[in-house]
Write a structure and sequence with these properties.
alpha/beta; 5-stranded mixed beta sheet; 334 residues; single chain; D-Maltodextrin-Binding Protein, domain 2
Length: 334
Amino acid sequence: MRFRKLDLNLLVALDALLSEQQVTRAGERILLSQSAMSGALARLRTHFGDELIMKLKNKMVLTPLAESIRKPVRDTLLLAQAVMDTRPLFNPETSNREFAIVASDFVDGILLESAVQHLATSAPQIVIELLDLIGRKMVEDLDRGDIDLLIVAEHYASAEHPREVLFRDTMRCVVWSEHPTVGDELTLEQYLDLPHVAMNFGRARMQCIEGDFLRGLGYRRKVATWTKSFLALPRLVVGTNRIATVPRLLADRVAKTMPIKSLLPPVKFPEIVEVMQWHQCRDKDPGIVWLRSFLHAAAAGQLSVDEPVANDKIVKALTIPSRRKLFARVARPH
């Protein structure tokens, strides 16, 4: 099919080329041979009157024009998918919809794991894949429409896509219950002098909120151990003189089973605001609307594995677009 002299099938090839910036990988992405993808690139270059992809210092890069159309092309395909895949009714009890959710292991541990357990009985055919936060890649995956929901601290949320607050939390400090120098209160001098266990994620080594906040105040903490896991933070202080700054919900949970004590921080850290984000092209996607409602109910404590909430209390008669089969796990291993 042609639209204004452009074969619309070439939009799929264009999207792959702009994303991969390499002919062979782009072909593999949409199951085309290298020669077929090279032919598609040639036709696209003719249409736009631009090289689109060019070699610069032994590396393939996008031209300025290609950079300018990268996001509109992706958004166009996502909108087309949403329109063409719309179905008349959505019933979570019988739906086999597959959702990919990117979140930290902290959110997994306090919310998503119990929510997935609930789905095992209330929506047994729905498939959930829980994916790790990987620095800035999480926003790139959201931009490309490769994930359905991003759950992240508002501090790191994308400005390009809709969001809504899922839950709020505060910060606590945790130390070993037999810490040699820390009692029931923690001074700023102690906090800055003690060796810290801290978290960052992704190749960009993005720190969590407290690290950025302390730098903004002009304070410098001494980090002895870096980890990519929120859940590892309290474990890594046990048996040591180290300290970690963690969300209160996590501190309260692990304090029940681990030899740690939870203390008020000596500085007033900003509130943790965890938000859900979805691609702007899927703002009306009834499947995403249902998933967001379901997670809001879970976060509000309305869901229980023993006493599941009826799905008709969450959503009634929604339409839903299907997705290509990408995911096959209910939950990723830890």
